[in-house]
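Hey Z.,

So I finally got round to the magnesium ion thing we talked about over coffee. Here's the setup:
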Amino acid sequence: MSDIMLEIKNLHVNVADKEILKGVNLTIKKGEVHAIMGRNGSGKSTLSYALTGKEGYEITKGEILLDGENILEMEPNERAVAGLFLAFQYPIEIPGVTTMTFLKAAMNAQRKAKGQEELSTPDFMRAVKKTAQELDIDSSMLKRPLNVGFSGGEKKRAEILQMALLKPKMCIFDETDSGLDIDALKIVAKGVNALRNENRSMLIITHYQRLLNYIVPDIVHVFSDGKIVKTGDKELALELEKQGYSKFDEVS
Ligand SMILES: Nc1ncnc2c1ncn2[C@@H]1O[C@H](COP(=O)(O)OP(=O)(O)O)[C@@H](O)[C@H]1O
Ligand SMILES: [Mg+2]
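And the result:
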């Protein structure tokens, strides 16, 4: 069995007929946490959407393998079943649907796609309560409609809970720290760190170094004009914070 979780080779992506990603190469091993940093507009979100298969993101060249499987031929929901999870920058609100109902539907959709039996309500309740407790999440939140009126920290808690229940093997966090205060940031970091293990990989996309004080990445990449222009260890993030991105524009 290979030790590689995600392999992106020479990925080119057009959005509205304009080339945004211009040859991304990225290999993430099982258990590794990578960070991508880059200025606004450099194409970071385009990369996360291309990975999850969002409509309108046209792959013109390249390959994406998830645990050895070519995901470019899969629909977005099939990619999720294959173990890909994207945490949104702006979580969606679902009025009228409680967080509990949403989580149950998400879990059962995944089970169904894998040919497993649906969870009964009591079994689901037990699983969700146990997981919430492990992650220090107050279960009263579960009775409220998903994300409606949630604080930034509560939205993140709901998302971490969803991740813990779905057990994805490749998690992508796109600017998950934007707009969060330090307490909310710590909640995210705690949840993410609790879910780190040797069979799960993570890609943390962020504009600021701040989050990386709490989620320490194994590898840091600098993104500029649609591709990775430099790769290093966690020190690279500190260097970027100090010196800014302009230095890296010249090499791209
Ligand atoms: N739906 C879209 N239509 C046209 N251009 C887009 C669209 N989405 C993103 N872009 C352009 O793609 C580039 C990269 O955007 P994005 O991936 O959001 O960057 P980042 O996440 O690094 O801030 C930007 O120049 C942006 O204007
Ligand atoms: Mg973005």
